[in-house]
Amino acid sequence: MDRTTARRSPEENRVRSRAARTIKKTAKVKFNVKRLVLSVLALGFAVYFLCTVVTQQSTLSRKNDEITALNEQIEAADRETDRLQEEYDSVSDPEYLERMAREKLGLVLPNERVYIDLSSGN
């Protein structure tokens, strides 16, 4: 043993050992600060990742709604195209031409008598 150690009282030795433990704990605290910083960074990254995923899901949902609306417009346009194609095909039909001439232009066949009902109020 060292002379200085032998001269110390038990109380003084206890205080010194407590100081030594406190210094060791302080070193651990510094390590814990590093771990705390890493934990905060990891938490920040997790929050950023979660926000990004939620935002992307929201955008994806809106785009799917737009796709649905556009598909409905395409179906409506296809139905209109079919109707117009049928009308175009029927233009060469003589019965259709006669009916349109009567309805739209008010034409009649030669020697045909047309009666107009005045009592209907039209």
Descriptive account of the structure:
With 122 residues, the chain is mainly α. The protein has one domain (3-106). The chain is built from three helices and no strands. The radius of gyration is 47 Å and the shape is rod-shaped.
Assess the beta-strand content as a share of residues.
under 5%
Oligomer: single chain
Structural shape: rod-shaped
Straight-line N-to-C gap = 130 Å
What's the story with the biggest beta sheet?
Answer: none
What is the averaged pLDDT score? 85
Assign the structural class, choosing from mainly alpha, mainly beta, alpha/beta, alpha+beta, or little secondary structure.
mainly alpha
Gyration radius (Cα, Å) is: 47 Å
Features:
single chain; 80% helix; mainly alpha; 3 helices; 122 residues; rod-shaped
Short overview:
With 122 residues, the chain is mostly helical.
